[in-house]
Amino acid sequence: MRLAVRLAAHAIVCFSIFALESQGQSQTYEGKQLVKAELLADTNAVVPSKPFTVGLLLRMAPGWHTYWKFPGDAGLPSELKWKLPEGWKIGEIQWPIPLKTTDPGDIQTYGYQDEVLLMQEITPPASINDSTVKLAAEANWLVCEKICIPGNASLQLELPRSVTSVPANAEIFARYRRLLPRDWPGAIVATANWKRARSDLRLNVKSPTLANYPNVDFYPLPQGDTVVGHPQLESRSGNEIVFRVPLESVSKDLSSIQGLVVFAQRADGSERAAWQIPTSGIAPVKSTASIPARGIFTFLLFGFLGGVILNLMPCVLPVISLKIFGFIQHAGQSRQKILRSGVAFAGGIFAWFIGLALFLIALKAAGREITWGGFQFTNPYFVLALSVIVLVFALNLFGVFEISLPQSATRGVLGWTGAQGDVGSFFQGVFATVLATPCTAPFLGTALGFAFTQSPVIILSIFFAIAAGMSAPYLLLCAQPAWLRFLPKPGPWMLHVKQFMGFLLLATLLFLLYVLGAQRGLEGAIWASCFLLFVSIACWMKGSFIVATTSVAKRFVVFVLMLVLLIVSGVYFIGGKFHSTKLASANSQLHGDWQAFTPERLQTELEQGHSVFVDFTAAWCLTCKFNEASVLESAAVREAFQRHGIVKLRADWTNGDPVITKLLQQFGRPGVPLYVLYRGKSEKPIIFPELLTKSIILDKLETISRTVASQ
Amino acid sequence: MKTKLILTIIASLVTTALYAFDPPPVGSAAPDFSLTDPKGETHSPSQYKGKYVVLEWFNPECPFVKKHYGSGNMQRLQKEYTSKGVVWLTIDSNAPGSEGNLSADAASKVMTGWKTRQTALLLDPEGKAGRAYGAKNTPNMVVINPEGKIVYEGAIDSKATPNPADIPNSTNYVKVALDESLEGKPVTTSTTKPYGCSVKYK
Fold first, then answer.
1. Which fold has domain A191-282?
2. Helix or strand run (H / E) with residue A305
3. Which residues lie below 8 Å from residue B41, measured CB to CB, with a gap of 6+?
4. pTM for the model
5. Are the C-beta atoms of A456 and A361 separated by less than 8 Å?
6. Where are the domains of chain A?
7. A38 CA to chain B: closest CA distance, Å?
8. What angle do CA A385, A389, A395 make, to 5 degrees?
9. A-chain residues within 8 Å CB-CB of B189?
10. Which residues are CB-neighbours of A338 under 8 A, at least 6 positions away?
């Protein structure tokens, strides 16, 4: 019966070939026909602008094969060069899933036996003049049995132009479309994770589907100069399979390759299906430390307050009254003129800070282009760099060493401020800020570091807020010079304020070390701290042995010693010890009744009819910690979750787990926090705002249970 | 002297076992072998220590090999570098009874007929040398430096086609590797994907 159907189908195919006047060509070798090549279309006519599919059908003599896009250890992919009229467009070849063959000597090749149809989508232009369209192509292939023979053919396909069309060659196109690899299914069905271990790539595929197929394989599609060895099945258990792909070319930063995960019911691969490995999901996401829309005001407020506090620093405070008195003298007591000078001065401050922000944005943009590895909290080296910055500035505030501007710069700056009037005031504003750098650097440096993870708009806003805060006293006092008497008098207290600020920075450092600990475990945090210790010693050396009067020779010696100290400790502690610490297990964040999130886990719970709440979080995400402590872990919310029988899963993104990254992207989020309630397999998941309140959660849970009850 | 030989043999056995069929990585010691040429003389990489050695896997029936011999490209390379003191060993690892396997007589005929210029054409019907180097293609090229380390392995050039017309427009990786090595520079492209027919192993 089946044979009859197949014969009938074959007859239809042959008939339609004749009908379309397709001209096939044969490759013969020593009197034997090896390959028959012809072009087919899946339509009986060309309709302007309507895309259709063309296919190169290669029929090989028994035992002979042609090759896949990636031929494996030997062979060449078949090629098709189209000569299309003006305005026609042709898509990439859609390669059916190949068969893998292994020959003696462990020679693995990927190709097609008996027959293959290589399909391409073709788009005609909006207007076609001729009543018959001739599409020509040059085909090249290599066909091998024991020996290999290159073959080629000049093929042509003739189709009438029409306003409507009906499908043609339906059976063969349908058969080969079924053999095309499919896109990777959603993370809930299957996940693919790449890991690089020295010169090997490891692909970890998790999916419940795996259990249905006795034969699962990975067919690589290396791009460019990449040379890969044979993928090996490393382990397989239940829903999980691991492939090892040795890399033979020296490509240091390669973290994944393209390829197919191929499933077959039978070992000969006759019933096969494949998923294309997603490569885009593995790329690092751009900005990660997200600020919720409402949270931005908090940041702006802190920026403003920080700017105001800058005025209390020892090298800034004495300047304020001096400046204001200066304005008053120049203006000859005219209120308006004083205010104008004040505004110009503030303008100078703004110019400086916005300049800084733009510099930072430009640096970040440049960094993204040359991919420094992502400035983000999921990258432990970024966190480490930030720790060093914060520590160095804390030590500066404690007075371990001073940040000094070169003398020539100071002198130049003073010379420039000689200009009179509003322009003069503007530049005085700029230079007062520059001269205040030794005192403001610790804060600005830290702010710069954190701002690096943010979007340009947020960077600009934060620096704008700092500038506003810093210039506020000037504006206020210029408007009301009488208030000068409220200004605290400079004195030793300023030093105390400065040193106290140092402790704030140390507190920040503790937070960063906590993040490092969450990423690389206790050991990672300790090795990082060892390096920080040596950084401190280097700072102390600068403070103790380099003063204004130090000779050039001595300066040089001290700098070299500092450099040696930093490099040796950096190589030993960071390059060696810290680098070799393993990723801390994602479960470090689990406590209470929370369970680790995996896509399979979510799938299973949903299949069992449970509602699932997923908390996407990270150790370094302060908003997440705040939400967890104040809302999710509060007695009322815990009780409500329990009462509604909701399963609580926690997805820990501290190390930038790509599976979670992909899910976050599916929800259109650049990072954490994200709170999602899945109510069942078919229902759309509910997304909660980034800043949670108890009432948001409790109200939502109530409404859901009510709708469920009313159904 | 004897211990050194024994050590070399043990080392090569271990290497062979470790890298059963995967090519030994660039920078590692070149596995040793001992094969005879059509005249019955034996050759091995270790006897040419102190010189650059090129290994070329060969199959006279393969269209990719014919591409480089038919155009005279391979002979030119062999002539140029053997005159500079480089040892060029062409190896036929195809099993008896399969396409491309050569008897001693047939090998001599191919050499005179094709006017080849290699140091020696070696017969490897057991596929020992081919497997030791993980050679899967013809042509498959390996360059060994005077210290006995592999400095290049992979394709002969950058255009993976059987068409001789592509030779002028392709980068010959073996030529580049040899030129760089002879000038004392490190090899920039040290691993490529070889292309060609598969070696027909026993």
1. Immunoglobulin-like (2.60.40)
2. helix A295-310
3. B120
4. 0.49
5. yes
6. 2-178, 191-282, 295-579, 586-710
7. 22
8. 140
9. 225
10. A324, A327, A328, A331, A478, A481
**Residue numbers of B between 25 and 54 with CB closer than 8 Å to A:** 25-26
What are the structure tokens assigned to A344, written together?
Answer: 């110009």
Mean pLDDT of chain A: 78
Burial grade of A23 (CB within 10 A; 0-12, 13-18, 19 or more): middle
Query: Looking at the partner chain, which of B21, B100, B195 has a beta carbon nearest the beta carbon of A106?
Result: B21
Q: What does the block give as tokens for A417?
A: 């401020």
- Give the CATH number of domain A2-178: 2.60.40.1250
Of the listed ranges A368-382, A434-448, A476-490, A502-516, the least confidently predicted one is A368-382
Domains and CATH numbers, chain B: 2-198 (3.40.30.10)
Task: Write out residues 153-182 of B within 8 Å (CB-CB) of A.
Answer: 154, 160-163
Predicted complex ipTM exceeds 0.85: no
Task: Reduce the DSSP state of residue A492 to 3 states and report it.
Answer: coil
Closest CA to A65 of A108, A116, A31, A105: A116
- Give Cα separations from A384 to A389, A525, A574, A626 (angstroms): 9, 9, 9, 23
Of B62, B136, B190, the CB nearest to A107: B136
Q: At what angle do helices A317-331 and A456-479 cross, to 10 degrees?
A: 60
Residue A160, preceding bond cis, omega within 30 degrees?
no
Report CA A253 to chain centroid distance, whole Å: 15
Residue pLDDT, tens place only, A546-570: 877 778 888 889 999 999 999 999 9
Angstroms from B123 CA to nearest CA on chain A: 17
Q: What is the pLDDT of residues A381-410, one digit of tens each?
A: 878 887 888 888 888 888 888 766 555 555
CB contacts under 8 A, B 58-97 vs A, are 61-64, 93, 95
- Partner-chain residue, chosen from A105, A227, A248, that has the shortest CB–CB distance to B131: A105
Domain A586-710 CATH class label:
alpha beta
With CA atoms as reference, the chain B residue closest to A73 would be B136
Among candidates A76, A222, A230 on the partner chain, residue whose Cβ is nearest the Cβ of B195: A76
Question: A2-178 and A191-282: same fold?
Answer: yes
C-alpha A447: how far from its chain's center?
23
SS3 A179: coil
Structure tokens at A75: 């062979």
In one letter, which amino acid is A263? Answer: F
Name the token pair of A183.
């896109």
Q: Which of A482-496, A530-544, A592-606 has the lowest mean pLDDT?
A: A482-496
A106–B200 C-beta distance less than 8 A: no
Instruction: For residue A55, give how far its alpha carbon lies from the nearest alpha carbon of chain B (Å).
Output: 23
Contacting residues of B for A146, CB less than 8 Å apart: 98-99, 200
Residue A451 CB coordination number (10 Å): 25
Give the chain B residue whose CA is nearest to the CA of A71: B195
On whether any CB of chain B is under 8 Å from the CB of A198, the answer is no
Q: Which residue has the tokens 């027919």?
A: B197
A73 in contact with B, Cβ within 8 Å: yes
Residues of B in contact with A220 (CB under 8 A): none
Token pair recorded at residue A503? 């402790």
Residues 6 or more apart in contact with residue A245 via CB below 8 angstroms = A200, A201, A202, A203, A218, A220, A228, A229, A231, A232, A257
Q: Which of A521, A491, A516, A496 is nearest to A388 (CA)?
A: A516
Whether the CB of A567 is below 8 Å from some CB of chain B: the reply is: no
